[in-house]
Design brief:
single chain, 209 residues, alpha/beta, Nucleotidyltransferase, domain 5, 5-stranded mixed beta sheet, 38% helix, 12% strand, globular, disordered N terminus
């Protein structure tokens, strides 16, 4: 597991054109963007960006700089989008943070995909609905634990520490991106792979065949 250390402070010069094709496995980064702690993942590793800043602008700046330090050379970034069924305090700030990341990616010419939480959970576990031994529906930390366990079992990635669920979520997003473009990290049952359908994927990412 790795954590953010150095941030790229160089301002973007404006929209750029990325190569139409690559001759290597694409560099894909998964981001579970948040105001306090963002989970981040690349092939074979996970990390996080954490800020304890109280000021909103300081939190925005720290998260955006931290995210950019990981994706500045990426061929594709897969971001978790909003769960529109939820209405909680701070949703406006989180939406703004996600859009700041998307806008920065656009300026850098880096293609990105936005995946809903339900798609991520389905890809990891096969369904968004899981029940305990009493028949009660699992949600919250219990459901996050299932996703984390799935990441460990399928990919051999053990996320640990306080931000383990954020990092596991980011790894699922990474795996979805590589799978969609022809490079699944492990065999995925059809019940799980169906989550790739209905997502909006960039058409500009070409991968080696």
């Amino acid at each position: 597991m790795t954590t953010a250390t150095l941030f790229d402070q160089t301002p973007a010069a404006g929209p750029t054109t990325r190569p139409a094709a690559v001759t290597h496995l694409p560099l894909v980064i998964g981001l579970d963007v948040a105001m306090g702690t963002t989970g981040v993942a690349g092939l074979g590793w996970t990390g996080h960006i954490h800020t304890a800043a109280k000021g909103q602008h300081e939190r925005f700046a720290h998260q955006l700089d931290g995210c950019a330090s990981f994706y500045r050379h990426a061929d594709l970034v897969v971001i978790e989008g909003a769960a529109y069924s939820k209405n909680n305090q701070g949703a406006d700030a989180l939406a703004a943070m996600r859009w700041m990341v998307r806008h920065d990616l656009w300026k850098r010419g880096i293609p990105y995909a936005v995946i809903t939480p339900s798609k991520r959970i389905t890809y990891a576990t096969g369904s968004t609905v899981h029940r305990d031994e009493t028949g009660a529906r699992l949600k919250g930390t219990a459901l996050k634990g299932l996703v984390r366990s799935a990441v460990a079992e399928r990919y051999g990635i053990e996320t640990e520490g306080k931000w383990r669920y954020d990092e596991a979520d980011a790894y699922v997003l990474l795996a979805m991106g590589l799978h969609h473009y022809g490079h699944p990290l492990a065999p995925v049952p059809p019940t799980h792979a169906r989550a790739l359908e209905g997502c909006t994927w960039p058409e500009t990412v070409a991968v080696a065949r």
